[in-house]
Amino acid sequence: MDRTGNLRSYPSIKKDILMTAAAPAKRLRKFGSKAVPYLLIAPVVIYYIFFWIRPVLITVVKSFQTAAGAFTFQNYVMVLTDPNFMPALRNTAIIVVFSVTLEFLGALFLALLINRKFFGSSFFLFIAMIPMALPAVAVGAMWLTGFTAHGWINSLLYYVGIIAEGAKIYWLAGSEWKLLALIIVIDAWQVIPSVMIILLAGLQNIPEETIEAGYVFGGNYTTVLRKITVPLLGPTIQTAIILRLISAIQIWLVIVLLVGFSRMPVLVERIVYYHEEVPALDISPLMASGYTIIVSVIVSLAALLYLRVSGAFGGKKEAS
Amino acid sequence: MAKKIKKTIKLSKLISKTIFYMLIVTLAIAIILPAFFLVSLSFLSTREAYQYPLPLLPSMSTEYSLTHGNRGYLISVYDKFDEEYQTVLDTSELEKITVYMKNQLGTPYTIPEIEEQIAKLESGAEDPVYFSASKNIFLNYISFFQISRDAVPALLRSFQIAGLTILVSLTIGGMAGYAFARYIFPGRDALKFSVLFVRMFPGVAIALPMVIILADMGFYDKPVGLVLVYSVGSIALTIWITASIFMGIPESLEEAAQVFGATKFQTFLRVTFPLALPGLAAAAMYAFLGAWNETVSAIILTQFNPTFPVVVYQALLGAVGNVNLAAAGGLVMAIPSLVFTFFIRKYIQQMWGGVTI
Lengths: 320, 357
Known about the structure:
The complex is a heterodimer of chains A (about 325) and B (about 350). Chain A is an all-alpha fold and about 325 residues long.
């Protein structure tokens, strides 16, 4: 608010001086300065109209059209009755719910444990950032070579004496639940360290007096945590959770690398499957765009939720 | 008495400190371990990569033994795990031997060198002849680029795409970021909202319809097409980063420059821009990471001209034959990401939590 005050008061002084000078020049200058922000944002607006709104609209319009161009709901019926649709939706939901919960609780626990400055902390923080920095294909390579029967995970278990010589654990065989658990663990490995540093940063921004005051007024560790620390971390936690939620919805590559297509369908995997694996089928383009719309709607809802809680709607932003 | 208490306090402090560091070290190991194995695997020879259990560290050389066999020369390789020589080849063709030594064990050996060893055997001085060949540790990396013929052009293409994405998103996004930071104008909130929304919108949802749009423009399967797609998300991110950077530069500095007679443009060029430079560099690295790491849009929008992640992805999908090569590819992919992440680690923390360290 301070900034707006300054911004407005400064030109007003200038205006008084200019008032006596030539009026048309003043008007021109005023128009000029008013146009500046619009000139600056014009390229973005144009870019987004062409390369964001247009493709999204095309997808939406096409999803209601038959091949001949007539209006139809058939495409949606087809996607919704796809035998892989419910499994894909279910798997995605399970991954999102479990991995985000697990990751958040794990990260908070670790952040509370570590919450202090220590020797080597900046190096440790960089290490904690590595998993998130790795490209999806590198992460895929890591776990693909790990979870195969003769991979490094079994080798490691052998070296530390957990499994006997010659014995192997077949990680990738078996039920879908086992695979889901593996995916959640992989995602946890990738995400917990980063969320942990974020929460750590948030924790270190809480003034010590606030926490001390909690203890002075008779709070024990848990009450202080519940009533002071976590609420103060609020905005940080919200941002982290929802951004994670959005990327968890889009997990697919590591699954495909581990078990291939169609073995454990998830929503984005279906898009790639129909577009890349069976592109020749008549229904493939429709299925691919159907799944695209479903993913977009779900992610958009999560994004709107985020924008709502972060107060980006209207002028609430300043309050948070 | 007081001394004793002091001692106990000191001891308990020491214990808690030790436990704390044990926790930190355990965590660091848990984070690093999978990455360590990927690195190690990328240096293993093919023979090592298919041993079980896998060697923890790549060998630097291989011990061979050479003797007469039924069909010519019998080559055996020393197995460190079983602690014995294992016969791998029985042939009279010297070329076959060198190819095997190079492809399976990563130890390039020339035919004259083999002949030298054979001469020792034939002279009867030694039987079997033991010799050791040192490993070319980077052979997997070389082979990865030789075997997948797309790899080198794809690597260049990926750098080109990332560079152009930086250019597009910094110019377009940087301008808008400045507008957001310095001006109050009607429609500002709506725009800010849509920028935040675009930032979270799934890239794959744009990639699929863009197939048609890019085909119309003649950009399908071309780097420019991917730049256009990647810039959508990366412009939004750049606006977000640059807006916060420009907001962090006190306006009083700009006003001071203007009081001394600088125009708005001069002010920007001489005062604001140099101050914003580190932040802009971070935004550029962000754009790089986004474009470099992206896979799904690249899979959808390329056909004969894949990007590097797509090449690695394809190598991994068919990696039954050469996991160690695929690991090398994955590592090449990871190195630029790690380097840039190292540079922008502080900004990443701000980005996620909206907090400063």
